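Run log, item B.
One chain of 295 residues. Sequence copied directly from the ordering sheet:
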Amino acid sequence: MSTLRELKSRIGSVASTQKTTSAMKMISSAKMRKATGQMQRLTPYSDMVRNVISHLLVTDQEFASPLIVDREVANVALVVFGSDDGLCGAFNINIFKQLLVAIADVRKKYGDGVNITILPVGKKLTKASLKIAEGNLKVEKAEKLNTRSASEDLYEFTDMVQQRFLDKEFDRVDVLYMHFKSTSKQIFTREQLLPVLPEALQGQVDQSAANSPCLFEPDAETIFNSVLPLHIRSMMQAVFTESAASEQASRVMAMQTASDNAAELLESLNLEYNKLRQQNITTELLDILGGQVQR
């Protein structure tokens, strides 16, 4: 049987936990709004880059780039985005499960002999990924990149991955992340980053302008090869921001659940405390009345 002092201590502890989780929820909500705001600001730039490339694609100009060339796949890189911190529910667990599915899918498609390199972003996924590294499955830590990195660090990482593709260290590069839909819904997404798919370059093009003769200065191929890396950077920036927004959304929901559970437990403890207090008062009154009768 719990004493009143023990119950009072537990009530104080649960109340403190509820305040903490509520505060963490507010902080995560603010971070989520900041990330979604960044997503909205990125959209015009990404659209502009795709429109420039699309305009080139609909003309009769000739151009080529090693970044869009398919080749026989012997080495695959999987760039997977998670979180550095915990308390975000099953966010990292779900991503890791889907990473295992992606690995199995790559081996099924290209054979068990394919070399797979996992490039995890976030301490939680890095720790989990290192446990499955063996044979032709390698894990490389992104030393200079984490979930709080600035755009410059992300661009440096993106350029490194792109250069390794050009050097034929990687024949295909996929990105794995949680796509942000709403606070309560995030969807795991796997996209091919390199070689760049034609459908990823499509944008809105005015057909009347597309059918008109164009003069390119410098030539179309130079423009295409200058803009294509910008598209890859903008795609990686969008993925990075979506993952950050999804992480904070997961943390908001986790803190909301924790706060609700704490409130439910607090109500139960208060009820138990009041019952025990009333029982003690009744016992004391009976003792007093019993003493008066004996006199």
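Observations after the first pass:
- The helical segments are 4-57, 91-110, 123-130, 151-166, 207-210, 220-294.
- Residues 29-252 form a domain with the Pyruvate Kinase; Chain: A, domain 1 fold (CATH 3.40.1380.10).
Flagged for discussion on Thursday.
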